[in-house]
Write a structure and sequence with these properties.
By secondary structure, the chain is of the alpha+beta class. 42% of the residues lie in helices and 9% in strands.
Length: 516
């Protein structure tokens, strides 16, 4: 059998083109089987090896299959003989003599054709499976996707595959993603990609095909309490609390003022953006019960701009229906503000408040200017250095506390700062709220007015009740208001908005308040 296969390959190697085809096909096949065996044994887990196994080797296999008939055609053309004459010349008589099931040569070709089809089918399936794994997305192009990979691993969706959100379901989605992936590979090869990677707001699949496969839009979530702890930069890193009762509601849209009211089908909200990142809107409109739309136009746009920069019916080609990702635009790849990151580390105890001036010194270390590639080491050096002048004979517990804080600071730096991709602190706006970007205020503000001059509602308590606002206690406004407190009037108003009852406390006309 081995002798016959050797004669077969020698017969196909009519010239250097055919010989190259034989070598490429055989080598790619053997190396693929070897790589798969090593993968199954757990010896190979690297994404770069996967690129070779599932992209390069099948490509070389197909190229070899194409070179073999090309070499045969060139040989036949050069010799000027018929195919039968060349077969008699290149193969032994017993391989081409007729048999009941066909000549042995044709049987071998038929069997190898079936093997080729099976190999390509298995290789293609393995390639698709490999390319759909998060490790491929995050590490195959490590220098490019490194920031996104780091943020993904620390996100609430770290167990959700990238393709479940960025590709979606169905053959059309898979084809679009693979075609887009070809351009991405070209961009990486020839250094054509942007730094930092822009948010893919224009080629994400609709939320109903991605988010809503897990998150049920009609579920009633009610109110959700969110506590935000901010720490002062004093010696004790004193905590200050902001507590909100978010009026999430449900996607059924039964009650105005609930956050998920916006995604109900009967309340369809649509808008036209000014810029590609959708940070500013020309107009926004909401469906009325009669099926028509009530429009609010952005009056803050420069009146000197042409009409296509101000909105209008004849420029509705860019109209978008609002869905989940218009607010949850950084649900996974979230990059932090340095002060926000320190506050989270203090609140979770990773940086103990027992360290004097922990907030101030940690923040100073994080926002320092360091050479590329030396940031994490420099953060550790600066933070440790700030405690170097302490009393001699420092207890081991203090040293362990500093070590724990250093580890957290290094991890935070490595997750957020990626110099090669020009990713610094919080490079992307976050529309969930209005702290790290325009968010809700893209629509909700005095700048968006209808024909009667009425703005989109934008009072503070529209979407959340305020239980504490930079307060010493997390539920300050649930406590009885004090007449002598400068915030007494606001305290009483926020408490009555939440409970539906007045406090009965006379704050007095002399007391001034701020905010709504």
């Amino acid at each position: 059998m081995f002798r016959q296969m050797l004669q077969f390959w020698q017969g196909l190697s009519t010239n250097w083109v055919g010989a190259a085809g034989v070598v490429l096909t055989t080598s790619a096949f053997v190396l693929f089987l070897l790589a798969e065996a090593l993968r199954l044994a757990g010896a190979i887990t690297n994404a770069y090896v996967g690129l070779i196994t599932y992209l390069l080797l099948p490509s070389l296999f197909v190229l070899g299959l194409l070179l073999i008939p090309a070499g045969w055609w060139l040989y036949k053309r050069r010799r000027g003989k018929s195919s039968r004459e060349i077969l008699s010349e290149r193969f032994a008589p017993d391989m081409i003599e007729p048999r009941p099931l066909g000549a042995r040569l044709y049987v071998i070709i038929g069997l190898l054709t079936l093997v080729n089809i099976a190999f390509l089918a298995a290789g293609g399936a393995r390639m698709l499976h490999f390319m759909n794994q998060p490790r491929f997305c995050g590490t195959a192009c490590h220098s490019v996707m490194g920031p996104e990979w780091a943020a993904y691993q620390a996100s609430p969706h770290a167990r959700v595959r990238c393709v479940d959100c960025h590709v979606g379901q169905g053959l059309d989605a898979e084809l679009d993603a693979k075609l887009n992936g070809v351009w991405q590979m070209i961009s990486v090869t020839f250094d054509l990609y942007e730094r930092p990677i822009p948010t893919p707001v224009h080629n994400l699949r609709p939320a109903r095909e991605t988010c809503e496969t897990c998150h049920w839009p009609d579920a009633f979530y009610g109110d959700r309490v969110k506590r935000i702890v901010h720490f002062e930069r004093d010696r004790a890193s004193t905590p200050r609390h902001t507590t909100l009762s978010l009026k999430v509601g449900s996607g059924k849209g039964e009650q105005r003022g609930q956050i998920h009211w916006h995604i109900a089908a009967q309340n369809q909200v649509r808008y036209q953006p000014v810029d590609r990142q959708r940070l500013e809107l020309r107009w926004v409109e909401v469906r009325r019960p009669d099926g028509g739309y009530h429009r609010y136009t952005n009056r803050s746009l420069d009146a000197s701009l042409p009409e296509d920069r101000q909105g209008g019916d004849r420029h509705d080609a860019g109209v978008r229906v609002l869905d989940c990702v218009d607010c949850h635009n950084r649900a996974t790849h979230r990059f932090q503000d340095p002060e926000e990151a320190i506050d989270e580390l203090l609140a979770s105890g990773y940086i103990p408040r027992a360290l004097p001036f922990a907030k101030r010194r940690a923040l100073a270390a994080l926002i320092g200017s360091y050479p590329p590639g030396q940031g994490a080491v420099s953060v550790e050096r600066d933070f440790r250095g700030s405690y170097r002048d302490g009393p001699p004979g420092r207890p081991p517990t203090v040293t362990a506390t500093i070590d724990r804080a250093v580890e957290s600071l290094r991890r935070t730096w490595e997750q957020n700062i990626h110099s090669r991709m020009r990713v610094g602190w919080n490079p992307y706006p976050d529309h969930l709220g209005h702290q790290n970007g325009p968010g809700c205020r893209r629509c909700h503000g005095p700048h968006m007015v209808d024909r009667a001059g009425e703005p989109v509602p934008h009072r503070c308590t529209l979407c959340h009740s305020i239980l504490a606002w930079d307060s010493a206690s997390p539920f300050r406004f649930l406590e009885p208001p004090a007449p002598g407190d400068p915030l007494c009037t606001m305290h009483s108003h926020l408490q009555s908005e939440l409970t539906g009852r007045t406090s009965g406390v006379a704050c007095g006309e002399a007391v001034q308040t701020g905010g709504q």
